[in-house]
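Sharing a chain and its predicted structure for anyone who wants a worked example. Both blocks are below, sequence first, tokens second.
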Amino acid sequence: MPVLHHSPEVEAAIRENRPVVALESTIIAHGMPYPQNVETALRVEQAVRDAGATPATCAVWEGTMRAGLTPDEIEQFGKMGPQIPKASRRDLAFLVSRRLTGATTVASTMIIAHASGIRVFATGGIGGVHRGAAQTFDTSADLQELARTPVAVVCAGAKSILDLALTLEYLETHGVPVVGYGTNEFPAFYTRKSGFNVDFRLDSPEEIATLLNAQFALGLQNGIVVANPIPEIFEPDAVLIEKVTLEALEAAEREGVKGKAITPYLLAYIERKTGGLSLKANIELVLNNARLAANIARNLR
């Protein structure tokens, strides 16, 4: 059994040197409830196609790293949901060796994308340094992957549940450029502003593709964060999001939620407390990122 497999659609696009955009599967299994997770995954894939690129939803499927899932496989992922373990870099060899299934995070999706020759990846928000990390040392493996894997990650910044200042400090230390698409300010996932600046502002997919072409030509072995703010029309109230986020963090601490479980727990808590407003924002920002990623991929050489 091959360790890496491409769907026929993705295989054809790679062979013919057509633009491809990687997509993660944790958002399907852990990011949203069923059936919104499946509906969103299929809408995101279609948004990539409509923008002129081929979507490659990544996962570990019965021991094989996959770039490209069928609609039926996405449906199975969505129905199984949290029963499917999250798979980051440390989990890949175990899942492959045991022929198990896993939902890829930002880190593991970057690994599959790079192994497949896919240079652009669209997600919701990257992981980062968690609040209280000075005591817990809880830092997402996404950051380390960005430091060593040359894939551009289009996202709505880092999730607002994180310590954004320390997350940006980590990226700076490891030489990962943070590019703001049409903004000087790093977005905070649900909201457009965080109070922190990006490294560089670029205002078109063509400009971002030119930067990526230079990055890859230089042979630099790190990723790039393309921070794409949620469209203003879908932005929830920032004060409400911060208030509910703090409540969610306190609840997680009371209940002893840690490790891989913390992010799904916090996002689900925020969704409940905002009456689904955060879920709607999550869906719209992922679609927005997918469209931008496809337009960037179309302009790569």
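Comments welcome. The chain has a mean pLDDT of 94.
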